[in-house]
Amino acid sequence: MKRIILILAIFLSACTPDDEKYSSDPRTNFEALWKLIDQNYCFFEYKNIDWKAVHDKYSPLVTNELDRYELFALMGEMLCELRDGHTNLISTFNVSRFWDWSENYPDNYNSVVHRAYLGNDYYIAGGLRYLILRDSIGYVFYNDFSNAVGEANLDEMFLHFKDCKALIFDVRENGGGSLVYSERIAARFLSEKTLVGYISHKKGPAHNDFSEPYPIEMEPSKRIRWLRPTAVLTNRSCYSATNDFVNKMKLCRQVKIIGDRTGGGCGLPFHSEIPNGWSIRFSSSPMYDANKQLTEDGVDPDIKIDIKEADQLNNIDTIIEEAILYLKGQT
């Protein structure tokens, strides 16, 4: 992972707008944003996006009469043409976003029902909340890969589960964060060195100017590992680093993914700035699974199941119950 970050740092440092001077001119900022995306975004061909046609659609709407709010709204609308949850225009007053990647899917998570399982008597280790459910099944809830998880946190958690027969690792509603924690946790479930995917980086300004994908391999952790039956619970709100985590966990022999398809987001984000000082981030380096397939649209579960309305009314989480049933059969 350090090698990936170094390559990106070298590349991205050269990817700044031609004119670095401050300008509030709508046309200057529109063209700078369009060009940054044009030369660096990584999923044009995969998503069949004609970016020149997008320019022709929005360019006539850019006039000197636009105030900053109108300009921001217009450029945010243009960025939604990428259909990418990793793409955000960021100002001091707003952040543009594309939500359609998750809105046509069921929630498959109910915070009220979830509290009935988690209760108040759970342990907290870094960003992890955990306890032992019935039938000697451990349960972990991790809803933000931005919340730190240290090696000592993981040691303590697995020691707590030493007498458990199986484990549920719930990452529903986890919108992502740090790939460091994705790799750190997944390494605890590996039994051997594993090819977990590939990555490419941009070599030039053309839409298909990418390096050949090169492999990403992971070593098993040298600390406490968990090789007993495990269920990872997912819903459509599992995005970015969480999507990466689920992709890695799917390669572990003792792990089953249960729930709904993840949200996707497999491009490493690029961060830059346009002349008026607004920030922009978008996907620039595609990451692939172990079969060299993009997971930009999500990772399918091994066992697909939705939360049933009738269960919710009775404070029952259908996905957790399905995981318990599956794990009991494995032990």
Could you give a quick summary of the protein structure above?
By secondary structure, the chain is of the alpha/beta class. Helix content is 33%, strand content 19%. α9 runs parallel beside α10.
Q: Tell me the total number of β-strands.
A: 12
Instruction: Determine the fraction of residues in helical runs and give it as a percent range.
Output: 25-40%
> Strand arrangement, largest sheet?
2-3-4-5-8-9-12
What number is the mean pLDDT? 93
Q: Termini, distance in Å?
A: 35 Å
Strand percentage: 15-25%
Shape: elongated
* Rounded Rg: 22 Å
Topology as a string of helices (H) and strands (E): HHHHHEHHEEEHEHEEEHEEEEHH
What class, by secondary structure content? alpha/beta
Number of helices: 12
Question: Could you list the spans in which at least 5 consecutive residues all have pLDDT below 50?
Answer: 1-19
Main sheet makeup: 7 strands, mixed
Describe the structure.
Helix 9 packs parallel to helix 10. Helix content is 33%, strand content 19%. The longest helix has 15 residues. The chain is elongated, with a radius of gyration of 22 Å. A hairpin with a 2-residue loop joins strand 2 and strand 3. A seven-stranded mixed beta sheet has the order 2-3-4-5-8-9-12, with helices on both faces. Strands 1, 6, 7, 10 and 11 form a five-stranded antiparallel beta sheet that branches. With 331 residues, it is an alpha/beta fold. The relative contact order is 0.17. The two termini are 35 Å apart. The N terminus is likely disordered. The protein is built from twelve helices and twelve strands.
